[in-house]
Known about the structure:
The longest helix has 18 residues. The protein is globular and about 50 Å long. Strand 5 and strand 6 form a beta hairpin. By secondary structure, the chain is α/β, with parallel strands linked by helices.
Amino acid sequence: xxxxxxxxxxxxxxxxxxELTDVGRRQAGLLGERLADVPVDAVWHSPLPxxxxxxxxxxxxxxxxxxxxxxxxxDHVPYVPSAAETPPSWAGFFDGxxxxxxxxxxxxxxxxxxxxxxxxxxxxKRSRPDTHxxxxxxxxxxxxxxxxxxxxxxxxxxxxxxxxxALTVIEYRDGLPPTIVMFNDMSxxxxxxxxxxxxxxxxx
Length: 204
């Protein structure tokens, strides 16, 4: 059975200007070391600088693997919930989003799913049937792909946060629902590099 393995990762820690920090580079390098034994076919990344730099940093551990931009991976709000769907903790977050912005985000979300959330094209000649692809993106697109894999309501992307360079793996097979293999896994990071991108508080 042909399987598409997606390895989703949020970019490394970035500064206030959206540029990768030294911590973010270390995080991306450690993720690359973790993926070094995986038969990765491609690394895709968001157009934003923090994702571009993270992708190239981790790809140093994946010799000869192509690194390519994918516009669908850009940071975006995939779905603007109605007031009734919005949890109290998100109240006010979507103030100012107009219909045009909401529609643009939804189109990006649909394009993301259409491009990546499916089994491999079996008509394409490859040396092996399965594909292994790394997607370096942002917290919201990862949340959207997880929500889609679980067939959860659109508003359930809210609250599915990912730490910097945490690993989420989804598998797609013909005739079966997607499988969430892991979500927000940080086991490749030492304790002092975990949980960046989350609010500061006590973490396990």
